[in-house]
Design goal:
This protein is α/β, with parallel strands linked by helices. It has helices at 2-35, 73-83, 85-106, 119-123, 127-138, 151-155, 158-170, 187-192, 202-205, 212-227, 240-248, 265-279; strands at 39-48, 53-65, 69-71, 112-116, 145-150, 174-180, 197-200, 231-234, 253-254.
C-alpha cells in the first residue's frame, strides 16, 4: 500500500508539474502575443427573437498562437488576470471593440457593444479614465458600450463595487451582470447595484426543455429581472425549443449558437443579411 501511495503521489506531482509548466508557458507566450498581435476579437450577435434584428454584440477575445493554434480564453484569461497582463489586454479589447462599433455605426447599423471586464480591470484605479478616453477618441456614444461583470467581482467589497459602478454609470455606459445565477449575490444586493441588464447563464438554458428545474429557474430569473426593470439576455441558446421557451417567458434577447457563434468582423454583415432574409425584410 505504501508503494502504491508513493506512486500515486508521483503521479499527481507529474500532473501538477504539467499544469504548472503549461501555466508558465502561457504566461511567457502571452507577453509575446501582446507584442506580436496574435489576438483578435470575435463578435457574437445578440438577436431580438421577435423581430430577428441584431440588437447587440458581445466581443470575445481569440488568441491564435503561431505553433499551438487557437488557445481558448478560458485557458489564458485566468493567467492574464493572475499576472496583471489582463490590464493591457483588456485595454486593447476595449479600444478594438469600440472602433468596430463605430465602423458599424458609420454603415448605419444599430446595436450596442458588450465587452467582458475582468475583476482586476474592475478594481483598477485607471478604469474610469480609460473608458472615458476611449469613448472620446472613438467618438462612440457612451450608451452603446455595455460592460459585463460577474457577481463574484461585486461581492467582495460591496460598497467599493457600488461606488465604482456608479462612476461607470456616470459615463453613460450600460452595465450588465454576466453568468447571472451562478454567483452568490443576493437579491438585496442586486437592487443596490446600478445595473441595466442580466445575462441568464448558459448552465440554466442548456437543458431546456428536458430539465424542469432549469426551466423554473430561468423563468424566475426573467420574471425577477422584469420586476427590477432590468433587461434580460439569455446566453448559450442553441435550439429552437429554447428560443420558444424564452419567448413564452418574455425574454426576447437571445445570444447563442442557435443564431450565430462569435464571428470575425468580416462575417457580421453576411450574417445580418441572412437574418434579414429569414425575417422576410
Ligand atoms: P462568457 O463571457 O460567459 O462568454 C460566453 C461564452 O459562451 C463564449 O465562450 C462563447 O463563445 C460561448 N457561447 C456562446 N454561445 C454559445 C452556445 O450556444 N453554446 C455554447 N456551448 N457556448 C456558447 P468563449 O469565447 O470561449 O469565452 C469564454 C469566457 O472567456 C467568456 O465567458 C469570458 O468569461 C472570457 N472572455 C472572453 N473574451 C474575453 C475578454 O475579452 N475579456 C475578458 N476579461 N474575458 C473574456
Ligand atoms: Ca460575457
Ligand atoms: Ca456569460
Ligand atoms: Ca461564462
Amino acid at each position: 500500500a505504501k508503494a502504491k501511495g508513493r506512486n500515486t503521489f508521483h503521479f499527481y506531482s507529474q500532473e501538477l508539474d504539467a499544469a504548472a509548466n503549461e501555466r508558465l508557458y502561457i504566461e511567457n507566450e502571452l507577453r509575446q502575443a501582446i507584442k506580436s498581435k496574435q489576438f483578435s476579437l470575435y463578435y457574437q450577435p445578440q438577436v431580438d427573437c421577435k423581430t430577428l434584428k441584431i440588437v447587440g454584440y458581445e466581443a470575445l477575445i481569440r488568441w491564435k498562437h503561431p505553433d499551438k493554434g487557437m488557445i481558448p480564453p478560458t485557458k489564458f484569461i485566468p493567467i492574464a488576470e493572475a499576472t496583471g497582463l489582463i490590464v493591457e489586454l483588456g485595454a486593447w479589447v476595449l479600444e478594438e471593440a469600440c472602433m468596430f462599433s463605430m465602423r458599424l455605426q458609420r454603415q448605419g447599423r444599430s446595436g450596442n457593444m458588450s465587452i467582458n471586464l475582468s475583476a482586476r480591470q474592475f478594481k483598477d484605479a485607471h478604469l474610469i479614465a480609460e473608458i472615458s478616453d476611449v469613448l472620446e477618441r472613438t467618438q462612440m456614444p457612451p450608451s452603446l458600450l455595455h460592460v459585463e461583470l460577474t457577481e463574484s467581482m461585486l461581492m467582495g467589497d460591496v460598497e467599493a463595487a457600488i461606488a465604482q459602478l456608479h462612476q461607470m454609470k456616470d459615463l453613460g455606459i450600460g452595465l450588465s451582470i454576466d453568468d447571472f445565477g451562478t454567483g452568490y449575490s443576493s437579491l438585496s444586493y442586486l437592487k443596490r447595484f446600478p445595473v441595466d441588464s442580466l445575462k441568464v447563464d448558459r448552465s440554466f438554458v442548456k437543458d431546456i426543455p428536458d430539465d424542469s428545474n432549469d426551466m423554473e429557474i430561468t423563468a424566475a430569473i426573467i420574471a425577477m429581472a422584469q420586476k427590477l426593470k432590468l433587461q434580460v439576455v439569455a446566453e448559450g441558446v442553441e435550439t429552437k425549443e429554447q428560443v420558444a421557451f424564452l419567448k413564452r417567458n418574455n425574454c426576447f434577447i437571445v445570444q447563442g449558437y442557435y443564431y450565430s457563434p462569435p464571428l470575425p468582423e468580416h462575417e457580421i454583415e453576411i450574417f445580418r443579411s441572412q437574418l434579414q432574409d429569414k425575417a422576410g425584410i
